[in-house]
Amino acid sequence: MKAADITVHLESPFLDRLEQLAQLSGKSVAEVVELYIKVQMGWRPVSGEVPAAVQALAGSVPLPPDWDYKTARDEALTRKYGR
Questions:
Q1: CA-CA distance, 25 to 53, in Å (whole number)?
Q2: Residue 18: CA atoms inside 13 Å, Cβ hemisphere, count?
Q3: Residue 18 gets which letter from DSSP?
Q4: Angle at 21 between CA 16 and CA 26, to 5 degrees
Q5: pLDDT tens digits, 48-70
Q6: Where are the domains of the chain?
Q7: Could you say which of 27, 42, 62, 81 would form a disulfide bridge with 31 (CB–CB 3.0 to 4.6 Å)?
Q8: What is the pTM of this model?
Q9: What tens digit of pLDDT does each residue of 16-28 get?
Q10: Which Pfam families match (predicted)?
Q11: Pseudo-torsion of CA 9, 13, 16, 22, nearest 10°?
């Protein structure tokens, strides 16, 4: 994906709060702004793209070969919401 630099001028109180938010989330101001823009645009990862954190979890919970996640999800929702 092609990346480009942009310059954004923000008022001091807003920038101060944005910097605090970035620090609390462990991200840079640029990463926070990029994520906000992606959310506003309805961005979704490319199909098949699995984040490294999710890949690291693969196989961490042993499941029976015939386990169906959709059935398990539906049962959990029924227990939680009584539907």
A1: 16
A2: 17
A3: H
A4: 125
A5: 777 888 888 888 888 888 999 89
A6: 1-45
A7: 27
A8: 0.50
A9: 999 999 999 999 9
A10: DUF6364
A11: -80
